[in-house]
Amino acid sequence: MWFIYKLTLRQLSGRWRLLITLLLTALPVVMGVIRSLVEDGPPDAEFQTGVVGMLVGVIMPLVVLAIASAAFTNEIEDRTLANLTLTPIPRWKIIVPKLLGAISVAAPMIATSALIAGYFIYEGDVKAILSTTVGAVVGVVLYSTVFTWAGIMTTRAIGFGLLYVFLWEVMLSGIVPGVRFLSLNHYSVSVMRAIDERRFTGEDMLSSGVAVGASFGVLVIFLLLSIRRLRRMDVP
Amino acid sequence: MTPRSSAHASVGSSEAVIRVENVSRWFGNVVSVSDVSFEIKPGITGLLGPNGAGKTTLLRMITGLAAVSDGRVTVFGETVRNNSSLYSRIGVMSEHETVYQFMKGRDFVKMMGQLRGVKDIDNAVDKAINLVDLSDAAYRPMGTYSRGMRQRMRLAATLVHEPDILLLDEPLNGADPRQREHFKNLLLSYAASGKTVVLSSHILEEVEQLADTVLLIVNGKLAASGDFHAIRAALNDRPYHVRVISDSPRDLASALVKLKSVDAVNVDPDGAIVVQSRNVRDLQIELPRLAKALAVRVRRVEPLDDSLESVFGYLVDR
Q: Which of A11, A131, B84, B226 could cross-link with A195 by S-S, CB 3.0 to 4.6 Å?
């Protein structure tokens, strides 16, 4: 598995992909820095929720989409996936290192963004910074699992991911109350709330137990779906 | 369409390592491979057919990369699809350049060996790279290689675990004449050690120089199989069609039909003569002489059916 993990890290570390994702993850930090430079006093809750909401609701899914979907689509498009499937290793030993590779590339960027942005918007409040960072990393893991599966299902994973993020996570989960039970964004924010109960007080959150259980369910289900897909697909 | 040769002379014994039984594959309404059955035993077997005949689809089903729509493929008696343990005994080289451009040649071969659980990996890698004569370029990224070099390094990666079965799809594409010779010798010596080599090609001569046994695939069906020389003899026996354009077609046609090397002559409405001959070599000598004797000016002579497709078509229709 180590060879496939190393290979995936190298494949996902393309200059342009990293540059664009780094620029995206820098946005919350820039907002936090500008706020601290131009205004005196602690940021209000609306600003804090807005920045964190942007990080976990939009930036994180887009960054993970750009990285995780490429874990398989690139190999399918350049036909190198057969190099891995024509070896005597079980399919899960291909899927797991690919997923870990995607998480390893995306998580440090998102975690760093959450840490630094959290430092500015929460004025050094360790518990708040920690909750933001842990919640964001949980989100990276969940979105990576889903978008890695999307990458092996279709070569149009980016299009699928964009529709999913903007229609389901951004629009519908904000309008239809029941959608939050099936929203990765809500799982992520609920984990933040579970660590720091002062955050997102005005929102209808899932309980920490439900959020953790649902997150685990998403992880297992989409891992199994990816393994099943790799077993059944015609490898180009 | 019926297979011309029913003799599966060198395949079809109890020693068969690959069995393809009534295999079909369709994509929507398009049938790519239709009810194909054959067996392959150690030695070199050529999968011959024109482009688009279904060779690659067939090979992909044998390797397990593609599912069969109907029928069964077994390797060493086991179903190959979703049976990853079999890949420690199989080496596959597809026709596409499936390399990682950023990776050094040696690292690629080493990774492929490690993924297949090769013990004493460094020695195995050195041996495989030496076999393809690429030691000098082993530490260069494969993105800097020529196409022929990439093919050879891919072959090294395919050979690194010394598989019992080697499946190669158009392996000589992109190789220069020296590399082709090296490649051929390598495959011949590999097969001589008791291994099974299956190579697909649309080039008759390529298969002729390597394969003892040929499976001729046309339009997704097995058109002929068996000893290469029997099939080659049948190919040589076919009539050729030659189009001759002259300034006096009727006079020339009347004279041509009397030649022993000519089977039939037709004059097209546009004035071109179509000569049917089983002895093109003699025709090449006699035609200019005849034209000179008749004082007829020949403007153009062209073969009408020199393509491999027409050769296959002849075999299939006969």
A: A131
pLDDT in tens, chain A (236 residues): 889 999 999 999 988 999 999 999 999 999 999 998 888 877 888 888 899 999 999 999 999 999 999 999 999 998 999 999 999 999 999 999 999 999 999 999 999 999 999 999 988 899 999 999 999 999 999 999 999 999 999 989 999 999 999 999 888 887 887 787 889 998 998 999 889 888 766 666 778 888 899 999 999 999 999 999 999 999 99
Q: Same domain, yes or no, for B157 and B211?
A: yes
**Chain B residues touching A80 at Cβ < 8 A:** 98-100
**How many contacts, defined by CB atoms under 8 Å, are there between A and B?**
58
Report the alpha-carbon distance of residue B264 to residue B255 in Å, rounded: 11
Same domain, B150 and B290: no
Q: Which of residues 62-101 of B touch A (CB under 8 A)?
A: 63, 65-67, 82, 84-88, 90, 92, 94, 96, 98-100
Per the structure, the complete domain to which residue B250 belongs is given by 239-304
Residue B97 sits in a domain whose CATH number is 3.40.50.300
- Cβ contact, residue pair B92, A82, below 8 Å: yes
The residues near A113 (Cβ < 8 Å, ≥ 6 apart) are A25, A26, A28, A29, A55, A59, A136
Dihedral of alpha carbons B243, B248, B249, B252, sign: negative
